[in-house]
Amino acid sequence: MNAPVLFEERAAANGMRFGIATLNSPQTLNGLSLEMVDLLAERLDAWARDPAVALVVLQGAGEKAFCAGGDLHGLYRSMTENAGKGAWGNAYARRFFEHEYRLDYRIHSYPKPVLCWGHGIVMGGGIGLMMGASHRVVSETSRLAMPEVSIGLFPDVGGSWLLNRMPGRIGVFLALTGAQINTADAFFAGLADFRLNHEDWPKLLASLEEQPWAGQAAGGAEDAIPPRSINDGLLRRALTALEPQTPLEGGHLRQHSFMINSLCSGNRLDEIYEELAGLKDHADPWLARAAATMLAGSPGSLRLSFALQQRMRLRSLDDVFRAEYIAALHCTAHGDFAEGIRALLIDKDKTPRWNPAVLDMATEAWVQKFFDEPWPEGQPHPLDDLGKEGR
Questions:
Q1: Which among 173, 176, 220, 316 is least surrounded, fewest beta carbons within 10 Å?
Q2: pLDDT digits (tens, 9 = 90+) for 195-236
């Protein structure tokens, strides 16, 4: 049986090394399981402590995807096995979301450069891994999305933080419609830093072996340039040396950004919903498909996604992860998450029976329960320590 994550270390000419972690489940588009999360976390911690490791590379096996999401089959099994036990009664879901969110936050705060190769499909859990990387690289094959509205969840893995930091109101649009964006729009939305032709990825890895990566400053001189700064610069130089010269094709998101900002400018979800629903017959198939996805999606997910963006607008990343953890556990107990997975992946009838069935029933009062702490009174939040290291 193949290992779910492959780890490799390559030596540079000066003796420094860089680590490569490869998600190794191409048959599931490298969907992120709990085992994969734990393996990644353990190795990232080891590489962070190793002074001879200059940087870390994250990639996915196969040609189709970096990572298309989380372990939906495993979460579905846990939800069916623990039905009726409440939001705190599903031990697997508690572990999965806690470990995944800790890993995502670890990447955001990692002490060394992290290069993420976001080729092909990058969705859901893949967005969580990629967005914290210091050097986020896309190719001509990249397709990014947070399509959780179609499975009864919400854009988690820090999505409530990330979407709020996109230009204008495009974060609201992407959350409600699950729209896929291409390479050009990944830059426009702030989801990518560099681009590389897919065929040039092996060349980049080879060039990393030639870089004079910095280790600990010799003698600890106070005026020495920190190794992190040097290595960030070397990695940037290696990436820009292979940057394609061909101009990027335009993206639908940027093309329609003025209209999207106008349609999503309000503070009432029902009004935004009606505005976006009007795009279902738009001449641009991308906009029409976005509207159709929203109309077919979970009304409860629409309300929860919108509420999270409103409530988390000025919150820190660690606070966002704590709020998303609570909401995710509630989704496993009394939301549409299990039904969405059933309709899409289990029975594959693509006819989910959402509850609430319409947006009018998914009110602001209804969504409040997704923010209530589900654990026993007096117990600290499982992610209480997140962001407090070194304080």
A1: 220
A2: 999 999 999 999 999 999 998 644 444 445 689 999 999 999
For the cut 80, the answer to whether the pLDDT of residue 1 exceeds it is no
Annotated catalytic residue within 19, 60, 125, 128: 125
pLDDT in tens, 56-80: 999 999 999 999 998 899 999 999 9
Active site residue 219: no
Q: Verify whether residue 9 is a known catalytic residue.
A: no
Q: Dihedral sign, CA of 382, 386, 388, 389?
A: positive
Longest dimension (CA), the chain: 67
Give catalytic status of residue 148 as yes or no: yes
Q: Is 389 marked active-site?
A: no
Where do the domains of the chain lie?
Answer: 5-219+227-369
Catalytic residue among 71, 100, 104, 148: 148
Annotated catalytic residue: which of 70, 118, 152, 251? 70
Q: pTM of whole model > 0.85?
A: yes
Q: Which CATH superfamily is domain 5-219+227-369 in?
A: 2-enoyl-CoA Hydratase; Chain A, domain 1 (3.90.226.10)
CB 142 within 8 A of CB 249: no
Active-site option among 156, 185, 318, 339 = 156
